[in-house]
Design a protein that fits this description.
By secondary structure, this protein is α+β, with helices and mostly antiparallel strands. The chain has helices at residues 18-26, 33-51, 88-92, 142-150, 157-164, 198-208, 220-230, 354-403, 408-429, 436-457, 470-486, 490-505, and strands at residues 61-68, 73-78, 120-128, 134-141, 165-171, 179-187, 236-240, 253-255, 260-262, 265-272, 278-286, 301-306, 309-311, 331-336. Helix content is 39%, strand content 18%.
Length: 506
């Protein structure tokens, strides 16, 4: 049989319409990730504006987010380089054909711009480049798109895009002299309406966007200096509905719900690349490690950033810990510098390669150190709970002894139990897990208990039952002893005996 070695021609290749559904909705299951995609493009546009001299060294890159709940419209506008009128169609209708690949830009696949189309009736890109007198609009009609995708007779991808996209050129009027804007129109109500929830949007941007640290975070200067030594941070001034500029969520203390923990130590590290240079720089903020940090604190877990924009969520580097649960106790970030450590298409993970494996291997020691700190802290808390329990029991028994309502034999038995409580307290003091400063404070508590024990052990001259005839006192003491023996709550039992003695004295 003759063998056919011919290759297909470009005309034989058909790119189906379903590819558009994948990049416009199936890839982005969390609505808020659309903000990350548009912030990423805005940051690249601001970098371009700086390189072209359109933004001065001291002039900040700005992103304004506006949420119109009544009209159900989101607008995201930046003061970056924008897109010139002549390039708009080529740039905004190219799917998977970004010119950023191989550059220092944050995005390079050319699909993220459609991230919000699955959550809205339309998506409009609006741009005016420096020196132009028109604003160009490119609108993707989400309703027409969904109808076309459901039609089995619809054409190929190029035909479908031409059918659902409109391009207009409008007079610039009073529009800014240079801007790029994304308008997410008629947002669909779903998943808690998060795209239009101001609190949710601000919380998400505070974690993901390239923002400055809060002035209330005292370690900010040391972290920022270390990061800037490795390259520019590309920080943006981001506002939501004209409010104050957003800052990162890190503070000196972290709210754990029932308590809070203070950040008291910082670890800065550099991860070497496989063939020289730096693969990444990172920082870890050490606190009291009292338990898992709640999601609401917005600093939970090791975060990873590329171009100072977060990739994935707080679970992305759980693998560096001996037990994944310790990631939830951790506060820290890793900033990727090696371009060969590549985020996947959804930017929720990284492509598996040797350079990413090198990163994980170099971070594993810090993961083990944090796990050790967590275990030490847990052991110390357990010891402190034991100390507090013994101290509380000693105090309660000393109060009963001081009351003087029981017989001498019962009093002696109570004192013996106090001695046992003191012994338990001293055993905790001998534990290696205790910090020296905490040990000294506990020593003073033990000394105070021992002083009180010596005082009440010396006895009292006056009998607290002297208001009762001598022949009846032993009976009352027996009753009081029974109350203490039968009560599960020593404090409540003492209060009852106090009331009974008060009634006897009346």
């Amino acid at each position: 049989m003759a063998r056919d070695d011919s290759h297909p021609t470009p005309h034989d290749v058909r790119v189906g319409k379903d590819l558009l559904e994948l990049v416009s909705s199936a890839m982005y299951v969390e609505p808020l990730t659309a903000y990350r995609e548009y912030l990423q493009n805005a940051a690249d546009a601001v970098d371009d504006a700086r390189s072209l001299g359109l933004l001065g060294a001291d002039e900040p890159g700005r992103v304004e987010v506006t949420l119109d709940q009544r009209e159900r419209i989101v607008r995201i506008r930046d003061n970056g380089a924008a897109i010139a009128r002549a390039d708009v169609v080529d740039r905004l209708l190219a799917l998977g054909g970004s010119g950023k690949r191989g550059t220092a830009a944050r995005g390079f696949r050319g699909v993220g711009r459609l991230a919000a189309l699955g959550y809205a009736q339309y998506l409009t890109f609006r741009t005016r480049a420096q020196g132009e007198d028109v604003v160009t609009e490119v609108t993707w009609d989400g309703r027409r798109l969904r109808t076309a995708l459901a039609d089995p007779g619809a054409g190929d991808l190029a035909s479908l895009v031409a059918e659902v996209v409109d391009v207009r050129h409008l007079p610039a009027g009073d529009a800014p002299e240079r801007f790029f804007e994304v308008e997410i129109g008629k947002v669909v109500r779903q998943r808690g309406d998060r795209l239009l929830d101001s609190v949710a949007v601000q919380g998400y941007l505070a974690q993901v966007a390239p923002l400055p640290f809060s002035p209330d975070f005292h370690h900010a200067a040391a972290i920022t200096d270390a990061l800037r030594a490795a390259g520019p941070l590309g920080e943006l001034v981001v506002t939501v509905d004209g409010g104050e500029s957003l800052v990162r969520p890190h503070r000196d203390t972290v709210d754990l719900g029932a308590s809070e923990t203070a950040i008291h130590e910082l670890t800065l590290l550099e991860v070497p690349g496989m063939d020289g240079g730096l693969a990444a720089v990172g920082w870890f903020a050490h606190h009291d490690y009292r338990g898992a940090i709640p999601n609401g604190a917005q600093v939970k877990g090791v975060r990873v950033r590329v171009g100072n924009i977060q990739v994935g969520d707080h679970t992305i580097l759980e693998q560096i810990f001996p037990e994944a649960r310790f990631n939830a106790w951790t506060i820290g970030e890793v900033h990727i510098l090696d371009r060969r450590i590549v985020p996947n298409g959804r930017r929720d993970e990284f492509e598996a390669n040797t350079h990413y494996a090198n990163l994980v291997n170099h971070l594993s020691p810090i993961g083990r150190d944090i796990a050790r700190r967590c275990r030490t802290s847990s052991t110390q808390r357990s010891k402190l709970r034991e100390f507090e329990s013994a101290g509380r029991e000693a105090a309660e028994r000393l109060a009963v002894i001081g009351q003087g309502a029981m017989s001498d034999g019962a009093q002696a038995a109570e004192m013996g139990r106090v001695f046992q409580s003191v012994a338990r307290m001293r055993k905790v003091l001998d534990a290696e897990a205790l910090e020296d400063g905490r040990r000294a404070a506990l020593e003073s508590e033990v000394a105070a208990v021992e002083t009180e024990l010596a005082r009440v052990g010396g006895g009292t001259e006056a009998d607290p039952l002297d208001m009762v005839p001598k022949g009846e006192r032993a009976i009352y003491r027996k009753v009081f002893e029974l109350i203490y023996e039968c009560s599960a709550n020593r404090v409540a039992a003492k209060a009852l005996v106090d009331r009974m003695m008060q009634r006897l004295a009346e």
